């Protein structure tokens, strides 16, 4: 049996680009992997329930991000702690993560600094579900979203007027036997 001669594959050679300067403007976007990011928007007109201080919430930025999902989650949860009327109460409502890579949130109460670890996540859906459950525990409605909120002009409608309108609409729908 005679061994077969192996010849190199025939293909078009790559062009020589060694003399072309390489800078960020020349690298196509598809060549650099894009990290998953999320913006978490804050509804400053939300019903904040009994745990959060409206004045502190008003001082928060309009949104957290764009950030990696775990960083946006950490910022949103830390904001809830920082805006608490009593940090201990809010801190106790947060579910700690276990295993894997963690990020921490902190609170100060009883003269001590307390830390809690949250699982690092890469899912926008997980972040939104976590924040929805946290808001349910805090008895506040519609505080966070991945979409911008329509902010009401203080001159045209205060949060109290908006809430009264919303409650009135709910009563009307109940009278009509309709559910949203």
Automatic annotation (TrEMBL):
Molecular function as annotated in GO: chromatin binding; histone binding
Source species, domain of life: Eukaryota
Record-given protein name: SLED domain-containing protein
One record GO biological process: negative regulation of DNA-templated transcription
GO CC terms: nucleus
Organism: Bubo bubo
Residue ranges of domain SLED in the record: 37-147
Keywords, in A-Z order: Nucleus, Repressor
Subcellular location: Nucleus
Hydrolase recorded as keyword: no
């Amino acid at each position: 049996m005679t061994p077969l001669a192996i010849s190199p594959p025939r293909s078009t050679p790559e062009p020589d680009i060694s003399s072309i300067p390489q800078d960020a403007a020349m690298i196509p976007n598809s060549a650099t992997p894009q990290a998953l990011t999320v913006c978490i928007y804050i509804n400053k007109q939300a019903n904040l329930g009994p745990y959060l201080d409206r004045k502190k919430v008003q001082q928060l930025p309009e949104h957290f991000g764009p950030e990696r999902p775990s960083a946006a989650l950490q910022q949103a949860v830390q904001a809830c702690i920082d805006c608490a009327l009593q940090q201990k109460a809010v801190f106790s409502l947060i579910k700690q993560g276990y295993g894997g890579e963690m990020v921490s949130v902190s609170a100060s109460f009883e003269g001590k600094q307390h830390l809690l670890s949250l699982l690092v996540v890469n899912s926008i859906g997980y972040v939104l579900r976590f924040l929805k459950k946290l808001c349910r525990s805090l008895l506040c409605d519609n505080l966070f979203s991945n979409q911008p909120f329509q902010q009401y002009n203080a001159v045209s409608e205060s949060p109290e007027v908006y809430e009264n309108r919303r409650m009135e609409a709910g009563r009307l729908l109940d009278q009509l036997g309709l559910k949203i």
